[in-house]
Design brief:
alpha+beta; 6 helices
Amino acid sequence: MSDKPLASAGLSDRICFNYTDFLAASCKKRWSFVDAIYGVMPIFGMVTRNPADSQRPPSERLKELALQIISTQVSDEINIARLITLAEQQHIAQFDILLPYPLSSDQLDAIHQEYRKPLLLSQQEERLTIQFPAAPH
């Protein structure tokens, strides 16, 4: 796997996840039987395989977890919904996904349907911004 960052945080600590590079990295990954199970039924990976090192930056934790559950065998919409679930579990309030192409309104609707919780999605060309609504106090 290359040393190219798959997810990064800039000066504002805003995470940007490069989806295209990530799919390429997941294609090169050597899959174990357990990884294959997590790829097919990712809920197990999201629940049981969280990295223990909470001192690492959120972008690094998200990248490590995403390598476990992102799959070229499912649609982009499902992969993005999985990423959103991971980000929520990591308490990341907002992040960007750099896509190879802008998503259609049907694809954005499919992401909303797959994720099934309130979510703000905004798109500017190939950059999809995901923001979780603030929880009431």
